[in-house]
């Protein structure tokens, strides 16, 4: 790896660590994930919610 690439990765790691430790950012991420799940449920959840006749 080049020195520039290593520096860029170190900056990205530091930024990610700072975001991970920011309670406001963590809460915003959870809110966004919940909102996205409501708008686009996973296929597993859709299938689970379907009532199929029992044979």
Report on the structure:
The longest helix has 18 residues, at 3-20. The chain contains three helices and no strands. It has helices at residues 3-20, 23-39, 43-48. It starts with a helix and ends in a 7-residue tail after the last helix. It is 75% helix and 0% strand. With 55 residues, the chain is an all-alpha fold.
List keywords for this structure.
0% strand; elongated; mainly alpha; 55 residues
Gyration radius from CA atoms, angstroms: 20 Å
Overall body shape = elongated
Q: Compute the separation of the termini in Å.
A: 61 Å
| Strand count | 0
Blueprint (SSEs and pairs):
Elements: H1 3-20, H2 23-39, H3 43-48
Short description:
Helices cover 75% and strands 0% of the residues.
């Amino acid at each position: 790896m080049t020195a520039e690439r290593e520096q860029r990765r170190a900056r990205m790691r530091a930024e990610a660590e700072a975001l991970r430790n920011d309670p406001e950012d963590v809460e915003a991420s959870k809110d966004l994930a919940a909102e996205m799940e409501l708008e686009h449920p996973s296929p597993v959840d859709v299938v689970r919610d379907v009532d199929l006749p029992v044979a």
